[in-house]
């Protein structure tokens, strides 16, 4: 029987045409707002959390063509009695590897791979349940997967339906892991015929705990302080990169992201606005149907606490649980062909409840939650098995439309019960994007690498070409939008939309754009002839160069974070650099070899320097910052000492500090007399850079710059148009910035320079309207000062940001602004 099945598979694979040519081929191989108000209130500090790091081992992610089972002897971890899951009666992280090792020995249906490590070095487990496969059968399944991605039909009866279950992405939402363990054990050991047939027809992938560091510590965020369910198109965290690899590699037909906690249980689909880049007709027909079945399964458990599950699409007002941003697991997975869901289990056991409630009550709640997780997973497995042919055709059609460059379909009212005009969002895909080195070579390379990493197909021109009437040089990159995952390409590269009038509220950010915020030059070809000679890209070409003549001093212009990192690298070696008034960093001719080294390392370009400039040393920054700001500053190469009000009150040595950055957790008025005196003494010689409400308050309390902060609508966010000045921060800045709870500055004192203003049309993409009393809207912000600089009466050089130039490690093209502010203020 085995040989017969293999023969059928081989015959089926043989009739599948080879991938088409012409377009670059695959490169292979209670949601709560994160980083929101707490970004201003809580300073991120260096602490013992980082000291708990375990030694990371290399990943052992299997080759796609290796058969199943793929047994891995997982390293085990010492028992940790401080693991916060223990109190809930749930599985502590240290118990997972022994359980999985035992299951792998017990059953040939279960495979475990280590697909990465957490920030502290804990292994990330991908557990796969499927009937055994030979390497040849696995190669055939991979061919089927690739064929579906090409938008061509496969024999649905032979293609194993991939399903992905993601768990515990928020560390203090534990029970997804435990519900998944129940299902894993059942699938691995059950002898009933239905289970065996299911595993012959399916591959079921479990990311057992997406955030093991947060699971152990009982925190929503990972060890770096990031909300992982806000990081998917940025992929700044190792846990997100692992999840992104899993979804690209497995190409699931359906996926669940198990969260908590919403009373009664919440099951997506979402409310509008729905992402405008989706082929939403292909999502909603199965998305709503399985959502209703999961609702029934949860009700059938008989728990009064989960008797009335909520489906936002059906039950919530517009915007209260939207599917607009691609930053969430479920919404990101849709671009890889998945019908996907966020599930919110019902009984809160974290935060204050964790500390206040008796262990017995917490364990009762966790048992209910685990039951709900198990019910949603089992229902989804059954749904996929019952509808596998339709789901495979559904995914194939999504990719076919992309490759063919077809328009999105009009979805009529009533397409599924409740679908109406408020659910209708669409876009017009351009014919192509062209990425050049015109503005910043490192930024262009970074953007290309990011796109390729996310399975977007990019080609590099072999010779010069013309598109849309513009001539481009050889080496330019082209994103042909006739490709299977065009929705993902477009959601990263498009400008986006101002949806202020389309929803009264939005759950989280409403604007983002790699094209506008990442610092590269990107042109849009909307339509027209499309011919050029290119080759598929697996990685961007090197961009580093030293263009100055031998014997000449070298100049480095700080237009990108890579430029800043290169400058700080050289400074950390003790080299005698200079800084010109225009912000250019000058490297002496005698240090050409060091310049060449960092040019190659960071992809930056040195040109011939002009004479002049003052001596420059590496800057030490005292930083009261949020987690995302801390990561950016350290990635930029600054020597950062984290502080807060409490740290200063306990005594802080200012003697080696060159500049103070204030974004979160520092209140001047709450400093004791000794701390205030020490800070005031520093302010007579050191620089100050501030961001947001906390920074503006610090500026006013410390009596630095005369500039009155005006708060925009607190929930406003997105990509904004700006007009740059010619000061030390505005020079070379991008024409766009990012805001979240924006500010602007009025009543500027003598000598205060406007570095950047909001444009006459403020929002390029996002959500910003006035408060109910008419204040704080876009009209009020138009033309106002968004970033200012000046020298205080005590001599301190100060820069105030009303924008968010380091938000969630996303707007990478804005980081150099912050670096220029720090270098200038500390000079």
From TrEMBL:
Residue ranges occupied by any Peptidase M14 domain in the UniProt entry: 89-380
Recorded superkingdom: Bacteria
Signal peptide segment: 1-24
A Pfam family: Peptidase_M14
Active-site residue list: 344
Cofactor(s) required, per the database record: Zn(2+)
Compositionally biased tracts (Basic and acidic residues): 29-40
Family: Belongs to the peptidase M14 family.
Protein name, entry field: M14 family zinc carboxypeptidase
Organism: Lentzea kristufekii
């Amino acid at each position: 029987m085995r040989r017969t099945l293999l023969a059928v598979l081989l015959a089926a694979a043989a009739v599948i045409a080879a991938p088409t040519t012409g377009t670059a081929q695959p490169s292979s191989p209670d949601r709560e707002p994160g980083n929101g108000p707490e970004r201003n209130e809580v300073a991120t500090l260096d602490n013992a959390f980082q000291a708990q790091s375990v030694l990371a081992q290399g990943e052992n992610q299997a080759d796609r063509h290796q058969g199943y089972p793929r047994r891995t002897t997982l390293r085990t971890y010492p028992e940790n009695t401080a693991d916060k899951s223990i109190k809930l009666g749930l599985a502590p992280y240290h118990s997972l590897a022994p359980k999985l090792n035992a299951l792998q020995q017990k059953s040939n249906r279960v495979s475990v791979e280590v697909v990465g490590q957490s920030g502290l070095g804990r292994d990330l487990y991908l557990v796969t349940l499927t009937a055994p496969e030979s390497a040849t059968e696995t190669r055939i399944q991979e061919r089927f997967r690739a064929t579906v991605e090409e938008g061509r039909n496969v024999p649905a009866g032979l293609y194993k339906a991939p399903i992905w279950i993601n768990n515990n992405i928020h560390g203090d939402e534990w029970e997804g892991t435990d519900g998944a363990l129940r299902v894993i054990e059942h699938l691995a050991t059950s002898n009933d015929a239905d289970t065996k047939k299911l595993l012959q027809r399916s591959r079921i992938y479990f990311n057992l705990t997406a955030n093991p560091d947060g699971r152990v510590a009982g925190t929503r965020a990972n060890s770096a302080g990031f909300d992982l369910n806000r990081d998917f198109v940025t992929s700044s965290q190792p846990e997100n990169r692992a999840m992104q690899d899993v979804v690209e590699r497995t190409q699931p037909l359906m996926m669940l992201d198990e969260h908590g906690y919403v009373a009664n249980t919440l099951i997506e689909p979402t409310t509008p606005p729905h992402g405008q880049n989706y082929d939403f007709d292909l999502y909603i027909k199965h998305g709503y149907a399985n959502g209703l079945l999961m609702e029934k399964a949860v009700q059938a458990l008989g728990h009064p606490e989960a008797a009335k599950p909520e489906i936002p699409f059906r039950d919530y007002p517009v915007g209260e649980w939207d599917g607009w941003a691609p930053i969430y697991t479920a919404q990101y997975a849709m671009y890889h062909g998945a019908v996907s869901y966020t599930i919110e289990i019902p009984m809160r056991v974290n935060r204050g409840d964790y500390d206040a409630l008796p262990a017995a009550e917490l364990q009762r709640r966790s048992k209910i939650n685990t039951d709900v997780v198990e019910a949603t997973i089992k229902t989804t497995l059954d749904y996929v098995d019952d509808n596998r042919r339709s789901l495979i055709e559904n995914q194939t059609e999504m990719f076919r439309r992309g490759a063919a460059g077809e328009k999105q379909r009009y979805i009529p009212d009533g397409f599924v019960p409740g679908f109406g005009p408020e659910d209708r969002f669409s876009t017009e895909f351009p014919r192509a994007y062209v990425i050049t080195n015109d503005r910043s070579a490192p930024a262009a390379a970074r953007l290309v690498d990011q796109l390729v990493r996310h399975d977007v197909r990019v080609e590099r021109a072999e010779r010069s070409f013309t598109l849309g009437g513009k001539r481009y040089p050889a080496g330019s990159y082209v994103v042909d939008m006739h490709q299977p995952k065009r929705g993902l390409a477009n959601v990263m590269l498009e400008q986006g939309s101002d949806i202020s009038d389309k929803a009264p509220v939005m759950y989280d950010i409403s604007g983002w754009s790699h094209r506008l915020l990442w610092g590269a030059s990107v042109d849009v070809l909307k339509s027209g002839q499309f011919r050029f000679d290119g080759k598929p890209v697996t990685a961007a070409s090197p961009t580093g160069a030293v263009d100055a003549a031998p014997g000449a001093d070298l100049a480095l212009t700080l237009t990108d974070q890579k430029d800043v990192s290169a400058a700080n690298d050289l400074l950390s070696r003790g080299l005698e650099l200079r800084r010109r008034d225009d912000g250019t960093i000058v490297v002496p001719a005698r240090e050409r070899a060091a310049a060449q080294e960092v040019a190659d390392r960071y992809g930056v370009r040195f040109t011939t320097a002009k004479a002049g400039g003052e001596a420059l040393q590496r800057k030490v920054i005292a930083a009261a910052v949020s987690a995302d700001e801390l990561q950016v500053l350290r990635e930029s190469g600054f020597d950062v000492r984290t502080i807060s009000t409490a740290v200063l009150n306990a005594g802080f040595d200012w003697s080696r500090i060159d500049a103070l950055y204030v974004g979160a957790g520092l209140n001047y008025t709450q400093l004791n007399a000794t701390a205030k005196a020490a800070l005031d003494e520093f302010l007579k010689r050191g620089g100050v850079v501030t961001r947001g409400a906390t920074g503006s308050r610090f500026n006013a309390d410390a009596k630095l710059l005369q500039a009155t902060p005006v708060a925009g609508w607190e929930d406003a966010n997105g990509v904004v148009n700006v007009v740059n000045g010619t000061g030390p921060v505005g020079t070379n800045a991008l024409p766009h910035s990012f805001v979240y709870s924006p500010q602007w500055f009025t009543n500027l004192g003598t000598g205060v320079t406007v570095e950047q203003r909001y444009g006459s049309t403020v929002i390029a993409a996002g959500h910003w309207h006035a408060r109910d009393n008419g204040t704080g809207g876009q009209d009020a912000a138009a033309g106002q000062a968004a970033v200012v600089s000046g020298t205080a009466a005590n001599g301190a050089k100060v820069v105030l940001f009303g924008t968010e130039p380091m938000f969630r490690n996303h707007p990478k093209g804005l980081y150099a602004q912050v670096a220029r502010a720090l270098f200038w203020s500390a000079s």
